[in-house]
From TrEMBL:
Keywords: Glycosyltransferase, Golgi apparatus, Signal, Signal-anchor, Transferase, Transmembrane. Belongs to the glycosyltransferase 47 family. One of its GO terms (molecular function) is glycosyltransferase activity. It comes from the Eukaryota. It is found in: Golgi apparatus membrane. Residues 1-25 form the signal peptide. It comes from Brassica campestris. Coiled coil: none annotated. Residues 35-374 form the Exostosin GT47 domain. It is a single-pass type II membrane protein. One of its GO terms (cellular component) is Golgi membrane. This is Exostosin GT47 domain-containing protein.
């Protein structure tokens, strides 16, 4: 195992290094008016900020061995040998996936003075594991000190040119994990990276933002679907359209087993109740509720468990859990399963760049969780009352959203590159956010 990991890591090292050199040398000769106002400089960081963090992939506390998931530049191993688009992706590795993808960005410049934005290839979420769960738990206020000293000592003019306003990085966890006030002693939860005044001006792409976001913008959780050419995306979309939706609604997740009232518990009760009381009838009959038990993380790297049921269900229930957002929101969209939200913090107030807020009611349903938990509203009744044609229209809108939340594979075909995916939209958003600061 150890030797396999070492080989994996070495392979990744050499891929990255070769790629960086290739891209930069190509870009110097590219002068393109389409790049006006869009140039990005990738800051060269010492390897302790990125690649070294991968070489210890099997030593991180409280997580699985991360090593297998580094394969394919962070997309993870393929789900089975013959697939071209499906991977066992760990969302934490978005830092790696994004890094690999931005190397293909057409407007890279080696000159920071020409750049509208400066990308920091720091794997902040992976580095945070030692503070969140490991030996540095009592010094979580230090997260970011090392990066800050580098930025302020090595070519300090790059960082100071715009007081950090033009710098951005990916932190592939909820922003809560980086928002421990510096004054809390002893620490309760999280590092203080986003609480350091020196970092107030930078932009962080996180998987979830706080209720009052400051530096961060939430971007979609990576799913397992990473096509590399248009025909593969199109054939998947055809499959999604054709799929027989044999159940009204689906919940794929864990929790809800405690006796205190909460939305997951209500869903579990409603689902098990209808599933058990409904008489077995002919195959024509639509099942009211399908339930995929994902307790103890068993679904995490196993998309087959939930993608098939999601393809067979009209609606996918997306209740909040430990935090308001869920990766399953995006798995469901990839499956053409209309999301049902129970609070706006799950998606509407998070992913405004990727899922336009004003269009939410066209591709999703919102039912207030209080109505379900305390006022006896049955989710199935609400969903059954939506006319069939309206459901079909909503599904088409979900399918339109699919490319926007998907992370296509690096090295994709030109045809697919013409469709904006989650990385393209995140980069557009970053550039716009930075330029709006003047
Ligand atoms: C962190 O501090 C607490 C309380 O002072 C202590 O019990 C614990 O052992 C410390 N943990 C580590 C990893 O040093
Ligand atoms: C953040 O930007 C403002 C100007 O917009 C500047 O006054 C301030 O010093 C900056 N903060 C840091 C820590 O650089
Ligand atoms: C379960 O179903 C029965 C019969 O349809 C109904 O009376 C009861 O209220 C349901 N319980 C829950 C928790 O939905």
């Amino acid at each position: 195992m150890v030797s396999t990991s070492t080989v994996t890591t070495l392979t990744i090292f050499s891929f990255f290094v070769c790629f960086i050199e290739l891209t930069v040398s190509q870009q110097i000769s590219t002068v393109d008016s389409e790049c006006t106002g869009r140039w990005i400089h990738i800051r060269t960081l010492p390897s302790r900020f990125n690649l070294d963090l991968l070489s210890t992939c099997n030593h991180y506390p409280l997580t699985d061995d991360l090593c297998p998931y580094l394969a394919n530049h962070g997309l993870g191993p393929k789900t089975h040998t013959r697939t071209r688009s499906w991977y066992r992706t760990d969302p934490l590795l978005l830092e790696l996936i994004f890094h690999r993808r931005i190397l293909e960005y057409p407007c890279l410049t080696p000159d920071p003075n020409l750049a509208s934005a400066v990308y920091l290839p720091y794997y902040a979420g992976i580095d945070s594991l030692r503070y969140l769960y490991g030996s540095d738990v009592n010094s979580s206020a230090d997260h970011g000190s090392d990066l800050l000293s580098f930025l302020t000592q090595d070519s300090p003019e790059i960082w100071s040119r715009r007081s950090g306003h033009d710098h951005f990085l990916v932190m592939a966890r909820p922003a809560w994990d980086f928002s421990q006030p510096l004054t809390v002693d002893p620490p309760i939860w999280g590092t203080s990276f986003l609480e350091r005044p020196e970092f107030f001006n930078l932009t962080a792409l996180t998987l979830e933002s706080r209720f009052w976001p400051w530096q961060e913008q939430a971007v979609p959780y990576p799913t397992s679907f990473h096509p590399h050419s248009l025909p593969f995306l199109e054939s998947w979309i055809r499959r999604v359209r054709r799929s027989r939706r044999t159940s009204l609604m689906l919940f794929a997740g864990g929790g809800g087993t405690s006796s205190t009232p909460n939305i997951r518990r209500s869903i579990r009760l409603e689902c098990t109740n209808v599933t058990e009381t409904e008489p077995e009838t002919s195959s024509e009959k639509i099942k009211t509720c399908d339930f995929v038990d994902c307790s103890n993380g068993i679904c995490e790297h196993d998309p087959i468990r939930f993608m098939r049921p999601m393809l067979q269900s009209s609606f996918c229930l997306q209740p909040p859990g430990d935090t308001p957002t869920r990766k399953a929101t995006f798995d469901g969209i990839i499956a053409g399963c209309i999301p049902v939200f129970f609070e706006d913090q799950t998606a509407k107030m998070q992913y405004g760049w990727h899922l336009p807020e004003e269009e939410f009611s066209e591709f999703s349903v919102t039912i207030a969780k209080e109505d379900v938990v305390f006022r006896g509203v049955r989710i199935a009744d609400v969903l059954m009352s939506i006319p069939k044609e309206e459901v079909a229209r909503m599904r088409e809108r979900v399918i339109e959203m699919m490319p926007r939340v998907m992370y296509r594979r690096h090295g994709a075909s030109m045809g697919l590159m013409n469709k904006k995916d989650a990385v393209d939209i995140a980069i557009d958003g970053v550039l716009q956010k930075i330029s709006s600061r003047g």
